[in-house]
Structures are given as structure tokens and as C-alpha cells.
Design goal:
Strand content: 5-15%
Radius of gyration: 21 Å
Strand order of the largest sheet: 2-3-7-6
Bound molecules: flavin-adenine dinucleotide
Helix content: 40-55%
Structural class: alpha+beta
Shape: globular
Largest sheet: 4 strands, antiparallel
């Protein structure tokens, strides 16, 4: 048992923190206000090797683990969650690396780390959110092609992506409900593809989110990820395992960032002739916030470490995702409270953190779905 980060991990965290602290603060408020993806920032992050750190070296990445990816995400979200989501421009590459053919990996992974392409993963539909088995987007095989029809909702990078992994019904006739699906890579310049950017999000407004439509979109059969058919559901579950840890690290990051801001503020602000940090009520709040952050981080790191050591544990992953999401919301809420009225206006970054934190309780599986997973593993099928 060793709780010490390796020198390499410490170095990665330091580099990620320095990049985020050097680049994000100046632009974060503006990109949040404009609800715009920070393209130049993404390019810089690619040049420095931050995008797709888990992608193997032969496909253009650094060949690090998902724990290291989570650490970079945490450092980025600590400084600004909206800007931090530039790391999601490779969302779905995990699945290509795990299940794709050699040709697919060579074709689609290097452009992501080099700043030449952005991708995303489209699972959610207007009538199929938590219940992903009820998706309706149909990929019908016609000769050497799939013809895709359907709609996807709330897709990260949907209006800026060069390609998307799309979770489709490929074998609606299959007996097993888990064998009806395929994951198909769709280039977004194909005829019949449409994306509409969603505006007015509560938080992470620098992160692009879009509605997608597929009207007779034809893609070659080689765009099905993997060599076996009917494997889409298990592929997507594995992607969730990884990305729930990454979402958990977002919760840890936003919580740590909010705590940092609260500590700074209570050491400056005076009321009743003393620093508000000198009130025991404030000290208890700070102590509780720091403890929650530490607990969420420990669970997140453990879940990530286990993935990297081929001991994937969906129960632990769901625990990390649920706890870190809730800690993000709780700590941001308390941190805003400690800022009083100033926390409620956009001049102070805590207002943005409070809005940004909520998403971790929703995407990559809502907190209720995480609890379902935990309970199912503990109780079995009742
Ligand atoms: C900013 C943003 C980015 C996103 N990015 C992506 C993306 O890149 N790709 C993608 O595919 N999706 C993405 N999503 C979609 C996201 O994953 C879904 O919103 C989420 O899974 C919930 O689905 P839903 O919104 O349809 O809610 P619903 O599933 O309708 O849930 C509504 C409520 O009912 C509860 N509920 C549902 N079922 C149960 C149950 N069995 N037991 C208890 N409670 C239940 C939920 O927990 C929730 O509180 C994104 C969403 C947002 C907001």
C-alpha cells in the first residue's frame, strides 16, 4: 500500500496547474459570458501534450494512465471548469483505443492530440437519457454502408467536432437487449448530419453542447468500432467506467478550486472588527469542505488506479462519481456562502464555480443512476 504519488505524477500535476493558472484566469469569465469554445486555448493545450494523455505514444499521445488523465482534469477544473473541458475534445478516443481496429486507431487518434481534430460521443437522445437501452437512432446496413437516422441530445462538442462516436441500434432484431447496438464513428461533414449548438446552459458554458440530427447519413461499414458486431453496449459501458472517474475528478477539481477561493476570501474580509475566518463557524465550514474534498479525491484516485491496473470496479467508480459530484456542489455552495453578497455577482469567480459544479451530478450518469449501480452490486437482483 502506497499513497504517495510518483515523481512523474507530481510533475504532471504541477505542469497542468501551471498551464491552467497561466492561461485560464484571463479568459475564463469572457468565454463563459460568450458561451464560446476557447479554440486557441485548446490548440495550446494540444501543443503542450495535455489532450489525450492516455493515448498511447504510437497514436500520438503520452501513453499515460487514466489516473494521470484524472489528475490533469482535476488541476484544470480547479482553475476553471469551462476552460477545463477542453480536455473533453478527445471524448470517445478511450473507446477507439480499447476496441478500434489498428486502422481506426491510426486514422482517428493522432489528429486529436495534434490539434487537428475534435471528437465527442453521442449516446443521449431526447427520449433516452438514463435509460440508454431505449435509444432509437437506427444504423441500417445497406451493402457496404450504414445509413443512420435519428437524433441525439446534449452532445459535448457536438457543433465543433470533426467526428463523433454514435451509439446506434444496429441489430434491433437481436434476442438479447444488450446485443442490439453498435458504436459507429460519423464524420460530421457527411451529408445529412446536422448540429445545433445549445445556448443558455447553467454552467460550463465554454464547453460546446449541441443537438444532433442524422437524416440518411451514410457511413462505410468500416466505421463501426471494433471487428465484432453487436458489441456497442458493452463498449459504451466501458467508456462510462473510464469517464465516470474523469467526471469525478472534475468534481474534485471544482471543489478544490472553490475551497481555495473561500480560504483566500475569509483571510481578507473583516466583519464585527475581525476576519470572518476567525469565527469558529467559518473555521468549521472550511474544515468540513477540506475533508469532503480529500475524501472525494481519495476515492477518485483509487477508482482511477484500479482501472489502470485492470481491476475495473463499477461500484467503486460510481461511488467516486457520486461523491465527487455532490462534494463539488456542496463545497461550491459553502464557498459562495462565505463570500456573502459578493459571491452572488459575476465579478467574483465563485459565482461561476457554483454554476459549473452542478453538471457533475448530471452527466456521465446522474447521481441517482450511480446509486442504482452501487446498490445493485451490493444487493444483487432482488
Ligand atoms: C452539459 C451537458 C453535456 C452532456 N454531454 C453529453 C455527451 O457528450 N454525450 C451524451 O451522450 N450525453 C451527454 N449529456 C447527457 C447526459 O448524460 C444526460 O443528461 C444524463 O444522462 C441524464 O439523462 P436525461 O437528461 O435524459 O435525464 P433523465 O434520464 O430523464 O432523468 C431525469 C431524472 O430522473 C432520474 N432517474 C431516471 N431514471 C431513474 C432511475 N432508474 N432511478 C432513479 N432515478 C432515475 C434521474 O436521475 C434524473 O434526476 C450531457 C448533458 C449535459 C447537460
Amino acid at each position: 500500500m502506497d499513497f504517495e504519488l510518483t515523481n512523474r505524477q507530481k510533475q504532471i500535476c504541477t505542469l497542468a496547474r501551471e498551464f491552467a493558472e497561466g492561461e485560464f484566469p484571463e479568459i475564463a469569465r469572457e468565454y463563459d459570458r460568450r458561451e464560446e469554445f476557447p479554440r486557441d486555448l485548446w490548440k495550446k493545450a494540444c501543443e503542450l501534450g495535455f489532450i489525450g494523455v492516455f493515448i498511447k505514444k504510437e497514436y500520438g499521445g503520452l501513453g499515460l494512465g487514466f489516473l494521470e488523465f484524472a489528475m490533469v482534469m482535476e488541476e484544470f477544473w480547479r482553475v476553471d471548469p469551462g476552460c477545463g473541458n477542453i480536455l473533453l475534445t478527445s471524448f470517445g478516443s478511450e473507446l477507439i483505443q480499447l476496441y478500434g481496429t489498428e486502422e481506426q486507431k491510426m486514422k482517428y487518434l493522432p489528429p486529436l492530440t495534434k490539434g487537428k481534430a475534435i471528437m465527442g460521443t453521442a449516446i443521449t437522445e431526447p427520449d433516452a437519457g438514463s435509460d440508454i437501452l431505449s435509444i432509437l437512432t437506427l444504423a441500417k446496413r445497406e451493402g457496404d454502408h450504414y445509413v443512420i437516422n435519428g437524433a441525439k441530445q446534449f452532445i459535448t462538442n457536438g457543433s465543433i467536432a470533426n467526428y463523433l462516436l454514435v451509439f446506434c441500434l444496429t441489430h434491433p432484431e437481436a434476442e438479447s437487449r444488450f446485443k442490439k447496438f453498435g458504436t459507429i464513428l460519423v464524420e460530421t461533414d457527411r451529408p445529412g448530419f446536422g448540429a445545433t449548438k445549445l445556448t443558455g446552459k447553467l454552467g460550463i458554458r465554454a464547453s460546446d453542447t449541441a443537438e444532433i440530427r442524422f437524416s440518411d447519413v451514410r457511413v462505410p461499414k468500416e466505421n463501426l468500432i471494433g471487428e465484432k458486431e453487436g458489441e456497442g453496449f458493452s463498449q459504451i459501458m466501458q467508456l462510462f467506467n473510464i469517464n465516470r472517474v474523469i467526471a469525478a475528478s472534475q468534481g474534485v477539481g471544482v471543489a478544490q478550486g472553490a475551497l481555495d477561493k473561500a480560504i483566500q476570501y475569509v483571510k481578507k474580509r473583516k466583519q464585527f472588527g475581525q476576519l470572518i475566518g476567525a469565527f469558529q463557524a467559518t473555521q468549521f465550514k472550511i474544515a468540513e469542505m477540506a475533508t469532503w474534498v480529500e475524501a472525494a479525491r481519495a476515492l477518485t484516485y483509487k477508482a482511477g488506479w484500479m482501472i489502470d491496473h485492470e481491476k475495473v470496479d463499477p461500484k467503486l467508480i460510481s461511488m467516486a462519481k457520486w461523491l465527487a459530484g455532490e462534494v463539488g456542489v456542496k463545497v461550491a455552495n459553502e464557498a459562495l456562502q462565505l463570500h456573502g453578497g459578493y459571491g452572488y455577482i459575476a465579478d467574483y469567480d465563485i459565482e461561476r464555480f457554483y454554476r459549473d459544479a452542478k453538471i457533475v451530478e448530471i452527466y456521465e450518469g446522474t447521481k441517482e443512476i450511480e446509486k442504482n449501480t452501487i446498490a445493485r452490486e451490493l444487493l444483487g437482483k432482488l
